[in-house]
Specification:
- By secondary structure, the protein is an alpha/beta fold.
- The chain is globular.
- It has six helices and seven strands.
- The protein has one domain: Protein tyrosine phosphatase superfamily (Protein-Tyrosine Phosphatase, Chain A), CATH 3.90.190.10.
- The longest helix has 18 residues.
- The strands form two sheets. It has a five-stranded mixed β-sheet with strand order 1-2-7-3-6.
- This is Tyrosine specific protein phosphatases domain-containing protein.
- One of its GO terms (molecular function) is phosphoprotein phosphatase activity.
């Protein structure tokens, strides 16, 4: 579980950074209470939610897809655009999952939806990255994102981590485990891979099958 501390010690949602460079949106971090509060999401103009937790799910469906669909189905048109990464808060994640989380978040902010009736949630608003407690998995991913997307302000991953921890109101005595060290290392390695990918470095040649 992400949070070993009482939930009242930090807000349901924490504004981490305004006007992310190149996207023009604000990014929030929160736990399950904030992510599950649709009224609060609307108040913060959050239209996109990226859930980092494999052991947490939400049913954001607010209306059926069309006539004949069951009104009480757990699928349908959602109140927000919802993306699921599904990290473990500790050991057990393939090392590429944090990398995929970065591109999932970047993609969620960059997608251009087709002008079709089946794509109803077209609003461009702010984004929430959440996990169960909003202190480990989501903090790691958002720090990685800020470091890569805003290197002038966050030249190192550690600088981005400290910023997210502070804005999330994590206590200094929990920084050693918030985020979990293995998630920080996964973010550090992902930052290196992203630099290689974005610079277009050549892919190593595959060994021949002689």
């Amino acid at each position: 579980m992400d949070s070993n501390s009482p939930r009242y010690e930090r807000p349901a949602l924490s504004l981490i950074e305004r006007d992310i460079a190149g996207y023009g949106i604000d990014i929030y971090v929160g736990g399950m209470d904030g992510a599950g509060d649709l009224e609060l999401l609307r108040e913060k103009n959050i239209t996109t939610v990226v859930n980092c937790a494999v052991n947490l799910d939400f049913n954001y469906a607010t209306e059926p897809f069309g006539e004949g669909e069951a009104a009480d189905a757990i699928y349908g048109v959602g109140a927000v655009r919802y993306y699921k990464l599904g990290l473990i808060d500790g050991h057990g994640n393939p090392e590429t999952m944090m990398l995929s989380g970065f591109y999932l978040l970047r993609g969620a902010l960059s997608q251009v939806l087709p002008d079709k009736a089946t794509y109803k949630r077209r609003e461009k608003g702010n984004v929430l990255v959440n996990c169960r407690g909003g202190r480990s998995r989501s903090v790691s991913l958002v720090a990685l994102f800020l470091h890569v997307e805003m290197p002038e302000k966050f030249p190192t991953l550690d600088a981005a981590l400290d910023h997210v921890r502070t804005r999330r109101e994590l206590r200094r005595d929990e920084w050693h485990e918030a985020p979990k060290p293995m998630l920080v290392e996964a973010a550090r390695k992902a930052a290196q891979w992203i630099a290689m990918i974005d610079k277009g470095l050549p892919v190593p040649a595959l060994a021949s099958k002689d």
